[in-house]
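Q: what sequence does this backbone want?
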């Protein structure tokens, strides 16, 4: 892992599919779909909050399961159907009076790339299909849907 000043990290941003989930959708015959979330990732949100670090979800999906998960975890900043994650991060920097060096982001696919390149601490799970074109500061040992976000949070918290 590259030398990171984790004391500068003030806000954690996260994608969902492929990070908090295994990137699979489970459809019923009625067209309803489900996703599975790791409880480890939910605990990570709580651990970050205890250190005054908010978690922000930025996902290109517009899915009610993500909204329900965010509500359960009391995540106040949720952006569904986000097509320009980098622009949203600019807005968040203004909102929280931060710089990109103060942001940590975990994502896993092409729509995350521009943001991963800009943040102070970038992270991807090992099952990401874009590891061949971008190397983040840290690659989790846990796969998406299996506690990758928790590992990401633990790295931040243990190095602050």
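A:
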């Amino acid at each position: 892992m590259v030398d990171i000043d984790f004391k500068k990290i003030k806000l954690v941003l996260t994608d969902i599919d492929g990070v908090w989930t295994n990137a699979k959708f489970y459809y019923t015959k009625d067209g309803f779909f489900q996703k599975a979330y790791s409880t480890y990732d939910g605990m990570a949100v709580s651990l970050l909050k205890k250190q005054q670090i908010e978690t922000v979800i930025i996902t290109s999906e517009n899915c009610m399961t993500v909204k329900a998960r965010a509500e359960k975890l009391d995540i106040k900043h949720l952006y569904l159907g986000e097509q320009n994650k980098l622009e949203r991060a600019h807005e968040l920097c203004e909102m929280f009076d931060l710089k990109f060096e103060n942001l940590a982001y975990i994502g896993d696919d092409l729509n995350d790339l521009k943001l991963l390149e800009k943040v102070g601490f970038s992270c991807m799970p090992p099952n990401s299909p874009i590891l061949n074109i971008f190397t983040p500061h840290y690659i989790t040992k846990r796969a998406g849907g299996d506690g990758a976000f928790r590992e990401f949070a633990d790295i931040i918290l243990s190095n602050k």
